[in-house]
Amino acid sequence: MERAARMALRGHGQAEPNPMVGCVILDSSGNFVAEGYHHRCGGAHAEVDALRHAGARARNGTAIVTLEPCNHHGRTGPCSQALLNAGVARVAYGCCDPNPKAAGGGDMLRAAGVDAFHLPCAAAERVTAPFLYRVRTGLPWVIAKWAQSADGRIATKPGEPRWISGPESRAMVHRERGRVDAILTGMGTVLTDDPLLTVREARASRTPVRVVWDPRLSIGVDRALVRTARETPTVVACTPEALAARSVHANTLREYGVELRAVDGLRALLASLRTQCATLPAGDRTGASTVLVEAGAGLVRSLHAEGLINDVWVFTAPHTIGDAGPRSMAPMSAAALAGLPCVWHGTRGVDAVEVRRVGG
Ligand SMILES: NC(=O)c1ccc[n+]([C@@H]2O[C@H](COP(=O)([O-])OP(=O)(O)OC[C@H]3O[C@@H](n4cnc5c(N)ncnc54)[C@H](OP(=O)(O)O)[C@@H]3O)[C@@H](O)[C@H]2O)c1
């Protein structure tokens, strides 16, 4: 099941808004035969992909799949039927499907005489969590990313180079930018760093919309995000009161190509992105599935306080920075981070990288 979960992750960036799903096929003696995953929304499901590779060797074998096989005719046929047609004798699934339209694959297989059962597995639950969360809450899955020094600082002193993490870490962030639907930042970052928040030096499955949470609608037209809004979609979100009070400035921003959204807070902003997100490819996708937060501690802490962050990606450089001002402390302390379940950890160049699950 863990191997199937690793396969599922390969679909990140293309499978959404569908779940990421992976599948491993064993032959009748329990030997590995083939594996597959859901490559992209609208394409073959993981079971069909794996069965295609397995061919006749799947007969009387076992399918291990991270999510209960679907039982409905969507853009592709039901996976439960595909498993039956392949003559699979046993199906183990890591998560039950909560989607009433798709669920029932387990029951259908059991009724047809297949030994189908739920095999709970943490790795399968982790990889399915973003989909389950979206179905349950109507909100996008939110990843907060930051780079910090060994002494927990996310900003450098004036006059010092801005980058804290190394090029390998930044490349990882750019790859992730190319897999999400929106990148959210705050006004403190816009004022200090004037970021572009585009996907550079990485292959992009998606073009994320850039979103600024600017409750008072104070963003200037000199900011890079505004100046490039005609090339890369940009949303500035503020309160309804600010939009009414600053209607002239709002019209100027619109002339620059900025989309304005009036929302009553961060939860409403995320819900609105889930409903409507300009950059998604044509088709039946309507809103953002995944949002990457690249902001300072102010916005990250506000999101966390409202329970709106699902994963954190923390890049820790080996050097220290020292006191660089009140806005330079990382959003979470080392002790707080250590208390969160670790999804993945590794290194990128000289940086330590950890992905931790906050909630889902
Ligand atoms: N290392 C990293 O990965 C990373 C990533 C992004 C940013 N940063 C650093 O984080 C620092 C910024 O942190 P932050 O917490 O201030 O920013 P933020 O989280 O990006 O933005 C949120 C806050 O910006 C504040 N803000 C500050 N000046 C404002 C103004 N003139 N108008 C409107 N809002 C304003 C607001 O604070 P109030 O609620 O007080 O109004 C708002 O809550 C910068 O030094 C930046 O370099 C580091």
* Derived structural class: alpha/beta
The CATH superfamily of the largest domain bears the name: Dihydrofolate Reductase, subunit A
Residue-averaged pLDDT, rounded? Answer: 94
The CATH class of the largest domain is identified as Alpha Beta
Task: Describe this structure as you would to a colleague.
- The two termini are 20 Å apart.
- The radius of gyration is 22 Å and the shape is globular.
- The longest helix has 16 residues, at 122-137.
- α8 (224-227) links the parallel β8 (209-213) and β9 (234-238).
- It folds into two domains: 2-131, 3-Layer(aba) Sandwich (Cytidine Deaminase, domain 2); 138-357, Dihydrofolate Reductase, subunit A (3-Layer(aba) Sandwich).
- The chain is built from 13 helices and 14 strands.
- The model has no long low-confidence stretch (mean pLDDT 94).
- The strands form two sheets. The protein has a nine-stranded mixed sheet, sandwiched between helices. Strands 2-1-3-4-5 form a five-stranded mixed sheet, sandwiched between helices.
- It is of the alpha/beta class.
- The protein has helices spanning 2-9, 46-54, 79-85, 105-111, 122-137, 167-177, 187-193, 224-227, 240-245, 247-255, 266-275, 297-305, 334-338, and strands at residues 22-26, 32-37, 62-67, 90-95, 115-118, 141-148, 182-186, 209-213, 234-238, 259-262, 290-293, 311-316, 342-348, 351-357.
- α1 packs across α5 (122-137) and α3 (79-85) runs parallel beside α4 (105-111).
- Bound molecules: NADP nicotinamide-adenine-dinucleotide phosphate.
- Residues 146-147, 154-155, 164, 185-189, 191-193, 216, 218, 294-299, 327 line the site of NADP nicotinamide-adenine-dinucleotide phosphate (NAP).
